[in-house]
UniProtKB/TrEMBL annotation, chains A, B:
<feature type="transmembrane region" description="Helical">
    <location>
        <begin position="491"/>
        <end position="514"/>
    </location>
</feature>
<keyword id="KW-0325">Glycoprotein</keyword>
<comment type="similarity">
    <text>Belongs to the UDP-glycosyltransferase family.</text>
</comment>
<keyword id="KW-0256">Endoplasmic reticulum</keyword>
<keyword id="KW-0328">Glycosyltransferase</keyword>
<dbReference type="GO" id="GO:0005789">
    <property type="term" value="C:endoplasmic reticulum membrane"/>
</dbReference>
<dbReference type="InterPro" id="IPR050271">
    <property type="entry name" value="UDP-glycosyltransferase"/>
</dbReference>
<dbReference type="Pfam" id="PF00201">
    <property type="entry name" value="UDPGT"/>
</dbReference>
<dbReference type="InterPro" id="IPR002213">
    <property type="entry name" value="UDP_glucos_trans"/>
</dbReference>
<keyword id="KW-0732">Signal</keyword>
<dbReference type="InterPro" id="IPR035595">
    <property type="entry name" value="UDP_glycos_trans_CS"/>
</dbReference>
<dbReference type="GO" id="GO:0015020">
    <property type="term" value="F:glucuronosyltransferase activity"/>
</dbReference>
<keyword id="KW-0808">Transferase</keyword>
<protein>
    <recommendedName>
        <fullName>UDP-glucuronosyltransferase</fullName>
        <ecNumber>2.4.1.17</ecNumber>
    </recommendedName>
</protein>
<keyword id="KW-0472">Membrane</keyword>
<keyword id="KW-0812">Transmembrane</keyword>
<feature type="signal peptide">
    <location>
        <begin position="1"/>
        <end position="27"/>
    </location>
</feature>
Length: 533, 533
């Protein structure tokens, strides 16, 4: 048997699922509370599919949005927020720029902290404005929705769902500070489940495990800066005491954009559904422009280069270093770059303002993918079996890169520290060393060999929650325990008390019996002696 | 939207999966090492489906087998064992009979212990004879199998798989003493995951949690009687030190005949696939005999009654009590019973030597199911939405009954203690109290609303393991940790030592500084004083 010999089967199945769907489903009403940015771009595919299946969909978004626009397959309800679209764009661009500021460590940390705090406050103000918009909230309450589909990265959607008393489906890549583990009540042993930002794999040395536990211990403090305001807001809106964990525990189903080809195997809970690679589904033929680039590349093929939606400009010095390296490989490089073209740009390097990343990666002539290793990009690399040169910039990108490197499917570079030669060598390595291609192809064949396509699985579970008004049979009883009950500390305490009491009584009993027996004898002896005297 | 409105979809999908399968799969070679009894009856459906998909299948069985016979869709390889088929049948019948022996508790426990020990020794001898059968083992080694599909309830199959160095798929309902949790490295918090034989639900009182932990603590001792001999046997055959946990950890994929409609939600691992209800798949129209019974039952319909394959005879007194109760309900009762007919058998009760349980339960005229609540029966009750009167006899049946009772889908009776009225009342309750029908129908609609049919899912994952030579990407790194590393005890110890050292040094430092400062002053003062004197 050959690995991956069943390649086309899930795709055909997926199509059949879609084709069968509409005829068998009655239309429901779904409220979508997305988060702006790349998160929305994969969520929108599910929304589209659900509309095709006959559901009536309302998408809720601030009037200052970057990616969330009017769409043919949903009704967009906008709400006013105290900032403009431009403010959001500046915040995003500044985040991208901050990567290249080469400040000393402490200064850098303070800057990052301040930036996260400011951006969080901006996004929190949008949430607060939504929840205090009485007119909109009552019109939603009258909407009789069957479910809320939301990205809980910022827990505004979960508050809306609880306010409407409607079951929720969470759609996400993962949450910082193990909030997703808390929300699902999923065990998370720090001995082999690497913590985000630890750069650990699932196989750790002793010191790496020490680091992992220290990060685990500090997680709840670290996340306060982003999340501390949501529980008071929820408590006010819902008129009851609500914690952040209550908000995160509200989901009936968690759709995780992840799988165990990319992530390390770890415990999971029954209401977690893995839909990693959902963004690879929609493939289109290349436009004439890109088809021409690829055809002109000859036997050496092409390299696709993009640092994601947040970074399309790079400081000139760095851009020149990169351009220098790209000029030294025989492949044609398609580089998504909106800044001033570096003066040393070689002939083989084409700058484009946008590129059809997934379609280009799917072309057989693509030899390598230079990426910031965002979760979408990494999955597109895996789906299409393209070895990667990774330059992680922030957030989960370092961990994504670490995982691909551990699996021998790519090389990681520090974009600040790397030299032109480092990039050139990394590219030549992943292209000429066959092991990289073999490893990514193995990952690709494992990833694509699945009984149901991720998009169909996501649609199925959203509809399941709509049909059954939630999924209470998948909710573990752990949600109803206190932390000391969960860890059985009260039972252990009780059993220890029983054991100690038994030991104590036995000891006292023995001592008493000993005194009774030998004490008497001694007294008898003594009295005997005294009589003898 | 209506719950369950998509009822027929998974079935259609399942059929499509099957129809598509053969054309897309290259045939592989599969070795099946089953366990005799009802376990085999659901495993054989997977075997049949795999053969339809073009795989070459060899089934390995002792020449003294009860259920495992020659089949058109596999090659049966028999091996000699030191007992006859009759010995096995007697052991099974005696197990059934032992249920009705009304001995005092302690005497009963000693008898059960002795019975389990004797039966285990019998089955172990079969395993030992297989593994020491050099000719057969070398012919298997030459068979170049792609995978071994086995029931690990007795870990003979896992030893064969390791001996052949071929990946294994485990097929089971569950293992005693949390061996399945150990084998998958799955967390198993005793605070909300009820232990087998505890009769606890997932929501426990303090005292139930105490009982649960005490059972958890004693599990490893309890299972010694069945499993202690397998590790030495494996070590001898594999010529390396092997523990029972090593054997149980060998599986690439665990196919669990369970789901979260029947079982309580709890942590799971990525290589566990839930195929509960796999035995409901094959439905046939009723034979003329049974069709006639059902048609003659009129508006009151029928009740299906079976205590499973192990118990088809009951002591006369008990049989008469049961017959008395059955005579008092208006339904026609179809009772699988091979013993002497009770003299008081009413006209509405038909005794049959065998009945097509799943097909009868699927008939719309079926009003209730009297069952010993074995895992197969409970799933047939759920699939077909029939309320149950449960008389658990041994093993996991008590826990199965408890779960259905907790969910309001049935009533449990103690077959030894119950009176005729108890049975009559229980039957009348589950038939006339609409909540039982509503609850089992709700469970049924949840159970059947799934993206892929359990049989297709099982076949998919066996083929996955054959295609990819295992599923190492789903194997958690926890397998490579010692128990103290898994619980991070070494890291916690180290961190405590660091903290204590820091406290100690700080304290000593302060004390030293204190002495330096105030000690001097004091000395100065003293010397000053002495000078003053």
């Amino acid at each position: 048997m050959t690995a991956g010999s069943q390649g086309p089967r899930p795709l055909i199945l997926g199509l059949l699922l879609c084709a069968l769907g509409p005829a068998l489903t009655q239309g429901g009403k779904l409220l979508v509370v997305p988060i702006d940015g790349s998160h929305w771009l994969s969520l929108v595919r599910i929304v589209q599919q659900l509309q095709h299946k006959g559901h009536d969909i309302v998408v809720l978004a601030p009037d200052a949005s970057m990616y969330i626009k009017e769409g043919a397959f949903y009704t967009l309800k906008r709400y006013p927020v105290p900032f403009r679209r431009e403010d959001l764009e500046v915040a995003f661009i500044n985040l991208g720029r901050s990567v290249f500021e080469n400040d000393p460590f402490l200064q850098r940390m303070v800057k990052i902290y301040k930036k996260i705090k400011d951006d969080s406050a901006l996004l929190f103000s949008a949430c607060s404005h939504l929840l205090h918009n009485k007119e909109l909230m009552s019109s939603l309450a009258e909407g009789s929705f069957d479910a809320v589909l939301t990205d809980p990265f910022l827990p505004c959607g979960p508050i809306v769902a609880q306010y409407l008393a409607v079951p929720a489906v969470f759609f996400l890549n993962g949450l910082p500070c193990s909030l997703d583990f808390q929300g699902t009540q999923c065990p998370n042993p720090p001995s082999y489940v690497p913590r985000p930002l630890s750069f650990n794999s699932d196989r750790m040395t002793f010191l790496q495990r020490v680091k992992n536990i220290l990060i685990a211990l500090s997680e709840s403090f670290l996340c306060n800066v982003v999340y501390s305001q949501y529980a008071p807001l929820a408590s006010e809106v819902l008129q009851k005491d609500v914690t952040l964990q209550d908000l995160m525990s509200y989901a009936s189903i968690w759709l995780l954009r992840s799988d165990f080809v990319n992530n390390y195997p770890r415990p999971i809970m029954p209401n977690t559904v893995f839909i990693g690679g959902i963004n690879c589904a929609s493939k289109k033929p290349l436009s004439q422009e890109f088809e021409a680039y690829v055809n002109a590349s000859g036997e050496h093929g092409i390299v696709v280069f993009s640092l994601g939606s947040m970074v399309s400009e790079i400081p000139e010095q760095k851009a020149m270093e990169i351009a220098d390296a790209l000029g030294k490989i025989p492949q044609t490089v398609l580089w998504r770059y909106t800044g001033t073209p570096p003066p040393n740009l070689a002939k083989n390097t084409k700058l484009v303002k946008w590129l059809p990343q997934n379609d280009l990666l799917g072309h057989p002539k693509t030899r390598a993918f230079i990426t910031h290793s965002g979760s979408h990009g990494v999955y597109e690399g895996i789906c299409n079996g393209v070895p990667m040169v990774m330059m992680p910039l922030f957030g989960d990108q370092m961990d994504n890169a670490k995982r691909m490197e551990t699996r021998g499917a790519g090389v990681t570079l520090d974009i600040l520290e790397m030299s032109s030669e480092d990039l050139e060598n990394a590219l030549k390595t992943v292209i000429s060393d066959k092991s990289y291609k073999e490893n990514i192809m193995r990952l690709s064949s494992l990833h694509k060999d699945r009984p149901v396509e991720p998009l169909d699985l996501a649609v199925f579970w959203v509809e399941f929650v709509m049909r059954h008004k939630g999924a209470p049979h998948l909710r573990p009883a752990a949600h109803d325990l206190t932390w000391y009950q969960y860890y059985s500390l009260d039972v252990i305490g009780f059993l220890l008390a029983v054991v100690l009491t038994v030991i104590f009584i036995t000891f006292k009993g023995c001592a008493f019996a000993f005194r009774k027996c030998f004490g008497k004898k001694e007294r008898v002896k003594k009295s005997h002696k005294s009589k003898a005297h």
